[in-house]
């Protein structure tokens, strides 16, 4: 089975009149969903960091300017906009303290300089990148399968994929990373096929682009090394040597950034321990989100990434209900994905299934395995697994393409699989339609409940919101009335301003709560536990 040609894929798709129009409609729907209500969902913690970086402010500057002052919500937003006072040197200073590679932020700043700094504009660049992923995905499938049919089905699935649509509306680098992953994969296969220097130079350039977009691009390059070693061997082929030189060149281009960057790696919360059975549930929900989003069936957030609320480490993920249809849909999709991978292994040439399995396996090895051993949650954060998800979508696209085009399959079976494909795509459309109307969604993680927090604060007459982390206030500033005041306080010496109808405390640390209650004798009354909101009462005179 290993050396089997791609004879299972027939060219009948081009002769199905409705299919061409079907793809066009899905593409238009996908573009529509990427831009529709682009600014409706709350601008959450990670996106605030994007705006802070493009504005040219460092967090140290921000803390110095805002601590122990009552500042109205519109004033907080000036630290999230492009201004001529902050130049590219200031942006570089801000980037150096970031944990992410630098490519995305300068692109967003240029975008903001041209079109403005509103939430809609900042997010729209990600939507544009997400659209650019379509031709890249088609090219990858063309190189991998030597046939355009799988590419068209893959594009159809990605166009209305809830996961990809959600991250197309996120002011972060993940749509850009998707494009660089697809380009890197396609250019590698192109370089192997053409066996010339130009191909390997192109591949090296995509390595550099990936490295400057996300550090986890390293897993993609490891997957490529595994693939070449498995297909052509290490000792007997020039291909592996060319791959090493191209990777070395790409990493060398990224070396200047390594020399100046102060921080690397992911957030601390990814290593926090979670209950063991949380890991498979999150994997099932994440995988299914490529085709169907279970959040449409729940008001509670799907993933609670274990925020430390001050006294205990909570991990309150949604509990899937057997009385809910979405639970069965998630399980059926996971089974479909598993069978598609098995089908790919059994029916495709070795060079195809090894490529896809390497892409998936590299992240499983470096993210899932440590989680299973140490009970962390690195592999349960969906945005880190985009290379893996691309492999899964390609496998599913191949499976459906074969099932609906292979002349050796009976017509009633072809009709059955066409119907299942249409149902799967319809689930994606339904998920995107419902999510487009929501103010918050599971990808907001720790900021999921901020819209409700904003509603509670807006009910007060003249409120002030007290917080330690100014980034939290900056996201909340978009959700409250202009007259709402914010105060950032120093944890070690908190001074609560007076003269307000209500004083709210948002996301306090254990140290701050103990300081206020035990040393300054304030009474902290829970207002909205899920949103980590308290009211400060009985202030001393």
UniProtKB/TrEMBL annotation:
It comes from the Bacteria. It is found in: Cell membrane. GO terms for biological process: lipopolysaccharide biosynthetic process. Keywords: Cell membrane, Glycosyltransferase, Membrane, Transferase, Transmembrane, Transmembrane helix. The chain crosses the membrane at residues 18-36, 119-140, 152-167, 174-192, 198-220, 240-259, 325-345, 352-369, 381-400, 420-442. InterPro entries: LipidA_mod_glycosyltrf_83, RgtA/B/C-like. GO terms for cellular component: plasma membrane. The keyword Phosphoprotein does not apply. Residues 100-258 form the Glycosyltransferase RgtA/B/C/D-like domain. Pfam families: PMT_2. It is a multi-pass membrane protein. GO terms for molecular function: pentosyltransferase activity. This is Putative membrane protein. It comes from Allocoleopsis franciscana PCC 7113.
């Amino acid at each position: 089975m290993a050396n089997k040609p791609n004879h299972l894929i027939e060219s009948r798709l081009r002769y199905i009149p409705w299919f061409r129009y079907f793809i066009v409609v899905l593409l238009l729907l996908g573009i529509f969903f990427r831009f529709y209500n682009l600014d409706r969902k709350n601008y959450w913690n990670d996106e605030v960091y994007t705006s802070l970086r493009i504005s040219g402010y460092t967090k140290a500057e921000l803390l110095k300017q805002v601590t122990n002052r009552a500042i109205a919500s519109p004033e907080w937003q000036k630290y999230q906009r492009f201004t001529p006072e902050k130049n590219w040197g200031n942006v570089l200073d801000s980037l150096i303290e970031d944990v992410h590679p630098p490519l995305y932020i300068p692109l967003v700043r240029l975008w903001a300089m041209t079109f403005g700094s509103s939430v809609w504009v900042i997010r729209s660049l990600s939507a544009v990148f997400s659209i650019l992923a379509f031709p890249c995905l088609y090219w990858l499938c063309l190189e991998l399968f030597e046939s355009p049919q799988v590419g068209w089905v893959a594009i159809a699935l990605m166009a209305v994929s809830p996961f990809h649509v959600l991250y197309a509306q996120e002011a972060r680098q993940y749509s850009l990373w998707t494009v660089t992953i697809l380009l890197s994969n396609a250019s590698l296969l192109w370089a192997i096929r053409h066996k010339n220097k130009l191909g390997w130079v192109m591949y090296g350039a995509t390595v550099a682009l990936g490295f400057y977009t996300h550090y986890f691009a390293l897993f993609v390059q490891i997957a490529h090394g595994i693939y070449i070693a498995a297909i052509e061997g290490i000792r007997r082929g020039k291909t592996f040597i060319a791959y090493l030189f191209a990777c070395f060149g790409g990493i060398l281009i990224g070396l200047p950034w390594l020399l100046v960057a102060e921080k690397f790696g992911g957030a601390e919360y990814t290593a926090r321990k979670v209950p063991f059975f949380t890991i498979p549930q999150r994997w099932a929900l994440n995988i299914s989100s490529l085709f169907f989003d279970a959040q449409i069936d729940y008001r509670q957030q799907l993933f609670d990434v274990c925020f430390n609320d001050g006294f205990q480490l909570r991990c309150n993920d949604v509990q899937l209900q057997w009385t809910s249809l979405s639970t069965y849909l998630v399980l059926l999709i996971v089974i479909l994905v598993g069978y598609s991978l098995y089908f790919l292994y059994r029916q495709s040439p070795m060079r195809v299934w090894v490529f896809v399995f390497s892409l998936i396996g590299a992240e499983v090895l470096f993210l899932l395995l440590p989680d299973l051993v140490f009970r962390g949650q690195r592999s349960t954060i969906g945005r880190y697994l985009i290379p893996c998800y691309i492999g899964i979508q390609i496998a599913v696209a191949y499976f459906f393409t074969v099932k609906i085009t292979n002349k050796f399959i009976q017509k009633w079976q072809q009709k059955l699989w066409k119907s299942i494909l249409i149902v799967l795509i319809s689930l994606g459309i339904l998920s995107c339609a419902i999510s487009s109307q929501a103010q918050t969604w599971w990808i907001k993680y720790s900021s999921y409940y901020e819209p409700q927090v904003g509603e509670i604060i807006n009910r007060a007459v003249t409120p002030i919101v007290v917080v330690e982390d100014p980034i939290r206030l900056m996201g909340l500033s978009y959700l409250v009335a202009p007259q709402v005041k914010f105060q950032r306080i120093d944890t070690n010496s908190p001074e609560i301003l007076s003269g307000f109808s209500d004083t709210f405390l948002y996301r306090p640390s254990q140290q701050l709560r103990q300081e206020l209650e035990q040393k300054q004798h304030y009474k902290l009354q829970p207002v909205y536990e899920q949103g980590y909101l308290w009211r400060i009462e009985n202030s001393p005179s």
